[in-house]
Structure formats: structure tokens, C-alpha cells
């Protein structure tokens, strides 16, 4: 049993606690949901449990396929034990299909399959509302070195490839997703979470949205969508993990 220590950080969806081991943190996933830069607030029943479980399963799948992650083990229904990383304040977004802010920014129709996938960086800053930045900004602001940027790009492309393939048999289309990375004794590890809060998943047959867009856009059936993603991914696990 790892004892939960001091609360280190509380975000919109998660709390991070120290443990008695300085090299390990406990991450607790909350049911709270926010959207539009915190303007819309709510709760999604069982979200904490579902996102903790899905993140654990995705991190395990990815680490078995060569992606270094912060994940160590799941220690409770909504709790993960992770390596203590210092989060690089850059959100890495990968996109396969046009949706969300890309549709707005470039006037593209949501659902258009991109001729080639796209990577974007955003500066993690609440005051600045997470502006989009490029690799020059990242280097100039010393958010990460050029080598670290390259490494994050390489991992993001690989994660995209692995997740798309992994989800295909579950008839889940990976539209886009956001990753965060952290530094652990100088090495880059995939961190944060991978869940319907941070990915867009569409049903491959009906096109139905099975992610946080149901909450953002008041589409109803939010809880059912999260449960459905978990049900499908758990079904894959025996076959694929
Ligand atoms: O809003 P946008 O279209 O830029 O989001 C792209 C992807 O990144 C979506 O899957 C969204 O859930 C995720 N994202 C996130 N956290 C943010 C911004 C975007 O998880 N702060």
C-alpha cells in the first residue's frame, strides 16, 4: 500500500498527491468536468473511475509497445500510482479527422479525413488560455529543448499509430487527442491521462460521438458514452494487450 501524502496539485479533472516515495505520485481522477476554458462546469457520473481505468489500460498497452509512460499501477478504482514527473507545459494534439478547434480555425468541415495527420502544440497556461504555439516558441520560451520537442513529436506519432490500430477492432475511430509529457530524471515520459476527456472517439459505424463533446455540446448520454468506450476497450484487452 502506498500512503497518500500531501496534495501537490489539484486541476480540473485530477488531484496529484505525494507519497512516502519521492519518486512516486498518486493521481486521483475526479468526476468534475469543465469545458470552454472552465466556463462550463458539471459532473459526469463515474467519470473518475472510467478515466482512471481507461488511462491505465491505454498506458499499459502503449508501454508494452515501446512508449515510456509515467504509469506504474492502478491502486484504486479512481487512483493510479505514477512516476513523479515534472510536466512539460506543452500540450501535444494529434489529429486524424477535422473536429473542434481545427474546424473553426481553418473553416473545415467536421468529419473531413485529413490527407495526412496533423500535430499541434499548445502552451499550457490558464492565464493565456492555452494558446497554440510552434516549436520555435517552445525553444525560445525554453519550455523544452529542441531534442525534447523532437522526442515528443516522435512519441505522439507513434501513440497515434498504436491507438488507431488498437481501437479499430472495437469500431472506435480516433479523431484526435491531446498528450502531455513529463520529465523524470531527465527522460521524457508520456504522462497525464488518455481518456474520453482528452480524445475524440467516434463510433466507426454510426459516427456517434463517444467522448467529452457530448458534455461540451449538450448532446446528452454523456455517462453512457464514457461507459461504452470503457466496455469496448475492456473487451479488447484480453485479445490485444
Ligand atoms: O478543442 P480541440 O479541437 O483543439 O481539441 C483537440 C483534442 O485535444 C480533443 O480530443 C480534446 O479533447 C483534446 N484537448 C484536451 N485538453 C485541452 C484541449 C484539447 O484534452 N486543453
Automatic annotation (TrEMBL):
<dbReference type="InterPro" id="IPR018236">
    <property type="entry name" value="SAICAR_synthetase_CS"/>
</dbReference>
<comment type="similarity">
    <text>Belongs to the SAICAR synthetase family.</text>
</comment>
<dbReference type="Pfam" id="PF01259">
    <property type="entry name" value="SAICAR_synt"/>
</dbReference>
<dbReference type="GO" id="GO:0005524">
    <property type="term" value="F:ATP binding"/>
</dbReference>
<keyword id="KW-0067">ATP-binding</keyword>
<dbReference type="InterPro" id="IPR050089">
    <property type="entry name" value="SAICAR_synthetase"/>
</dbReference>
<keyword id="KW-0658">Purine biosynthesis</keyword>
<dbReference type="InterPro" id="IPR001636">
    <property type="entry name" value="SAICAR_synth"/>
</dbReference>
<dbReference type="GO" id="GO:0009236">
    <property type="term" value="P:cobalamin biosynthetic process"/>
</dbReference>
<protein>
    <recommendedName>
        <fullName>Phosphoribosylaminoimidazole-succinocarboxamide synthase</fullName>
        <ecNumber>6.3.2.6</ecNumber>
    </recommendedName>
</protein>
<dbReference type="GO" id="GO:0004639">
    <property type="term" value="F:phosphoribosylaminoimidazolesuccinocarboxamide synthase activity"/>
</dbReference>
<dbReference type="GO" id="GO:0006189">
    <property type="term" value="P:'de novo' IMP biosynthetic process"/>
</dbReference>
<comment type="pathway">
    <text>Purine metabolism; IMP biosynthesis via de novo pathway; 5-amino-1-(5-phospho-D-ribosyl)imidazole-4-carboxamide from 5-amino-1-(5-phospho-D-ribosyl)imidazole-4-carboxylate: step 1/2.</text>
</comment>
<dbReference type="InterPro" id="IPR033934">
    <property type="entry name" value="SAICAR_synt_PurC"/>
</dbReference>
<keyword id="KW-0436">Ligase</keyword>
<keyword id="KW-0547">Nucleotide-binding</keyword>
<dbReference type="InterPro" id="IPR028923">
    <property type="entry name" value="SAICAR_synt/ADE2_N"/>
</dbReference>
<feature type="domain" description="SAICAR synthetase/ADE2 N-terminal">
    <location>
        <begin position="7"/>
        <end position="232"/>
    </location>
</feature>
Amino acid at each position: 500500500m502506498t500512503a497518500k501524502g500531501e496534495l501537490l496539485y489539484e486541476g480540473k479533472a485530477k488531484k496529484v498527491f505525494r507519497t512516502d516515495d519521492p519518486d512516486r505520485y498518486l493521481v486521483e481522477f475526479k468526476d468534475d468536468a469543465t469545458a470552454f476554458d472552465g466556463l462550463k462546469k458539471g459532473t459526469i457520473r463515474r467519470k473518475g473511475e472510467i478515466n482512471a481505468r481507461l488511462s491505465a489500460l491505454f498506458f499499459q498497452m502503449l508501454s508494452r509497445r515501446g512508449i515510456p509512460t509515467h504509469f506504474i499501477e492502478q491502486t484504486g478504482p479512481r487512483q493510479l500510482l505514477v512516476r513523479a514527473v515534472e510536466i512539460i507545459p506543452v500540450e501535444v494534439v494529434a489529429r486524424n479527422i477535422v473536429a473542434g478547434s481545427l474546424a473553426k480555425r481553418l473553416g473545415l468541415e467536421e468529419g473531413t479525413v485529413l490527407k495526412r495527420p496533423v500535430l499541434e502544440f499548445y502552451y499550457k497556461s490558464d492565464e493565456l488560455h492555452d494558446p497554440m504555439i510552434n516549436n520555435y516558441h517552445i525553444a525560445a520560451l525554453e519550455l523544452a529543448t529542441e531534442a525534447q520537442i523532437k522526442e515528443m513529436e516522435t512519441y505522439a506519432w507513434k501513440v497515434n499509430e498504436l491507438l488507431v490500430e488498437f481501437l479499430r477492432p472495437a469500431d472506435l475511430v480516433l479523431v484526435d487527442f491531446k498528450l502531455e509529457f513529463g520529465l523524470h530524471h531527465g527522460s521524457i515520459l508520456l504522462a497525464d491521462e488518455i481518456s474520453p476527456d482528452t480524445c475524440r472517439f467516434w463510433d466507426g459505424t454510426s459516427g456517434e460521438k463517444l467522448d467529452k463533446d457530448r458534455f461540451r455540446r449538450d448532446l446528452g448520454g454523456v455517462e453512457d458514452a464514457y461507459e461504452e468506450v470503457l466496455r469496448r476497450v475492456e473487451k479488447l484487452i484480453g485479445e490485444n494487450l
